[in-house]
Amino acid sequence: MARYRGAVCRLCRREQVKLYLKGERCYSKCTLDKRNFYPGQHGAGARRGKLSEYGIQLREKQKVKRLYGLLENQFRLTFKKAERQSGKAGENLLLLLEKRLDNVVYKLGFASSLAQSRQLVKHSHILVNGRKSNIPSMQVSVEDVITIREKSKTIDFIKESLEATLRKGLVPSWLSIDSASLSGKVVSEPVRENITVDIHEQLIVEHYSR
């Protein structure tokens, strides 16, 4: 499967917002704090004019796509699925992204970053309702139980990541976590208010509606 292999700090600098793509390191040693300018040879001294309407829409789409670690084709297909659902397409899109298995594993604290979470899923360390699931894009449902496979519970970074997540109180209200058994549960459907990152989803709708 194709994936971005470049320096992830460049993505945060390009979007001028913290995307927390390196997990715990983003809280203590964020490149954006020291190099708050666009990447590239002329990033620091570049004179950039006012973005066009299309440019604003594109940047918002790129920001959300990178926040959830998707490539363009994956993101576009998710948007088309959101359009077919009842309600607001932009809000549907965000909730579909939130309910991806790799994102849920990350939000439960089993991984310090979304990339690490995706690796856990793809390498079959995660069980959903007692069954192995290695598809990061799988949509979870209410009452689903997500657990670490028994043989994988000794992995140090899983416990370390969970401790950091609990210490900071980062587990969203639509999920519950049992740190003793390394398991989590989807207790309700996520709602737009659960997404605290500054996102203007209507701009993404307008971008794909052009």
Q: What's the SSE blueprint?
A:
Layout: H1 8-15, H2 25-28, H3 31-34, H4 53-67, H5 72-84, H6 89-98, H7 101-107, H8 114-122, E1 126-128, E2 131-132, E3 145-148, H9 156-168, E4 175-178, E5 183-186, H10 201-208
Antiparallel strand pairs: 1-2, 1-3, 3-5, 4-5
Helix pairs in contact: 4-10, 5-6, 6-10, 7-8
How do you describe this structure in short?
The chain is built from 10 helices and 5 strands; from the N terminus they run ααααααααβββαββα.
What does this structure look like?
With 210 residues, the protein is of the alpha+beta class. Helices cover 43% and strands 8% of the residues. It contains 10 helices and 5 strands. It has a 5-stranded antiparallel β-sheet, with helices on one face. A hairpin with a 2-residue loop joins β1 and β2. The mean pLDDT is 85.
Biggest sheet strand order reads 2-1-3-5-4
- Derived from helix and strand composition plus strand pairing, the structural class reads alpha+beta
Termini separation (Å)?
Answer: 29 Å
Helix proportion: 40-55%
Spell the H/E element sequence. Answer: HHHHHHHHEEEHEEH
Radius of gyration: 18 Å
The dominant shape is globular
Features:
globular; 10 helices; alpha+beta; 210 residues; 8% strand; five-stranded antiparallel β-sheet
